[in-house]
Amino acid sequence: MLAAERRDHLLGLLAREGKIVAKDVAADVGISEDSVRRDLRDLAAEGLCQRVYGGALPVSPAVVDYTARQAVTPDGKRKVAAAAAALVRPGSALILDGGTTALAVAHALPADLACTVITHSPTIAVALLEHPQVEVFLIGGRVFKHSAVACGAAAAEAAQNVSADLCLLGVTGVHPEAGLTTGDAEEAAMKRALAARAADTYILASSEKIGTASRFRVLPWEEISGLITDADPHHAVVEQLTERGVEVLAAD
Fold first, then answer.
1. Residue 24, exposed/middle/buried by CB under 10 A (0-12, 13-18, 19+)?
2. pLDDT in tens, 91-142
3. In terms of Cα–Cα distance, which of 210, 216, 214 is closest to 241?
4. pLDDT of the residue at 152
5. Separation CA 105–CA 77 (nearest Å)
6. Closest CA to 60 of 188, 194, 149, 175
7. Distance between alpha carbon 47 and the CA centroid of its chain, in Å?
8. 110 or 67, which is more confident?
9. Which residues, in sequence order, are CB contacts of 38 under 8 Å at separation 6+?
10. pLDDT of 67 above 80
């Protein structure tokens, strides 16, 4: 099989199966595992897959820059945001992550809602200026421009001094095997620090993130209260998560 044919075969397998197992492909096609791994390295370098131990997974489209992400499935993000905003109770304290879906949550909160919002995103803080009864606590630190959030040691330390009823957390990838992932190690650590300070943590994941993976794991499934997504309830990944006991809140 020529290199171009192997490439097409791998991309087709990734689209159909949602993953590639290198040893299985090698056996099916009749080539060495080393050849499959080289092909996967090339595809990963082009941003067409996320390499994992033993193979590859679909890459998340949410790893592009902040401005570009605003144009990715805006309707889906609004649906997820509306469902997430409905979880916020008057008088409660909310930890709201950064990113484009979290920004949609800020806009979806009722104009007369009285609550406290703790965030490490200056973009979220500015958006909440439109909510006169929302008290905003802004966590500072080094700004990670990809998501317009504060990360690093100073931000993580500040997070240890807050607590909340609810945390709404964004990720770039949601996959049964890879888990909840994002593309930057420090951002992943900051998300863990925030989630640890809330009684309940729900993941915000519009449909394009379902079944994809990024490089760094954020949280294991057992440490979240649920997943909010606009993906079809019959999506294979959604069904797998439901079967393993993950609460999936449909955003429609």
1. middle
2. 999 999 999 999 999 999 999 999 999 999 999 999 999 899 999 999 999 9
3. 210
4. 92
5. 9
6. 175
7. 17
8. 110
9. none
10. no
Q: What is the mean pLDDT of the chain?
A: 90
Q: How far apart are CA 251 and CA 154, in angstroms?
A: 35
Q: Taking a C-beta distance cutoff of 8 angstroms, is the pair 217, 181 a contact? A: yes
Residue 20 has pLDDT above 60, yes or no: yes
What order do you get walking across the sheet with 134-138 strand by strand? 134-138, 115-119, 93-96, 164-170, 198-204, 226-229, 248-250
3-state secondary structure of 18: coil
C-alpha to C-alpha distance for 119 and 138, rounded to whole angstroms: 5
> DSSP assignment of 200-232, as one string?
EEEEE--GGGBT-B-SEEEE-GGG-SEEEE-S-
Instruction: Check: CB of residue 47 under 8 Å from CB of residue 91.
Output: no
**Residue whose token pair is 């990809």:** 146
Q: Are strands 55-57 and 93-96 parallel, antiparallel or unpaired?
A: unpaired
Q: In what order do the strands lie in the sheet with 50-52?
A: 20-21, 55-57, 50-52
Residue whose pair of structure tokens reads 């990715």 in the numeric block: 72
- CA gap 168, 198 in Å, rounded: 9
Q: What is the pLDDT of residues 182-241, one digit of tens each?
A: 999 999 999 999 999 999 999 999 999 999 989 999 999 999 999 999 999 999 999 999
Dist. CA 168–CA 93, nearest whole Å: 11
Pair 34, 42: CB distance under 8 Å: no
